[in-house]
What does this fold into?
Amino acid sequence: MTAFPAIAPRILKGGIAQIDPDSGRVIRIIALQYNPETLSRSFQAQAVGADGGTDRSQALRLKGPAIETYKLDAEIDAVDQLDDGDALVGRFGIQPHLASLELLVYPTSAQLRDQHAAAARGELQIAPLEAPLTLFIWSTSRVAPVRVTDFSVNEEFFDTRLNPIRAKVTLGMRVLSVSDLGHDHRGGGLYLRYQQEKERLAASVPGASPALLGLREVPT
It folds into this structure.
């Protein structure tokens, strides 16, 4: 008979953290209620000549890290919290949970007020409003600085006060590299750690022999 462990392993949650890019202070951590079953990723090489250039001497050169994107679908459900008598969920459903994700693509209301007041004083706004540095966290090996590029919500069920109690969220993110942030930015340093972890994982895989590819040796 197979013996089962007395204590079930702790399942880590995927999620998002926002930090102050100057001080590194953690502003908010958002854990996904349920981990998505799939995670879509795409990569676009930043190669010289990829935009139609014809300089053959540049064919093997890279302008920077690949443009990497993440996309996931997550579910948010209030059933368990309602059964447990959660007062916040009982009053608002899952609106607070949805709001915490929606605000990833908003400047703060304080920033908007300050911007309006500055405009009323005739001050010229040169730089757009700066958002916190957002980190997508999917295990200890994947902590990437990202920009949320698209966010959509499909609310499916509602309570008697029209508060949503179940929804599906689609979240798209673009990894911000040193090409976007620079090496001196806090996010640039976090990106380098993210890529170095990729390199460490790749180096742990033994190299294949040419025979597996049907070759006596790799042509050189």
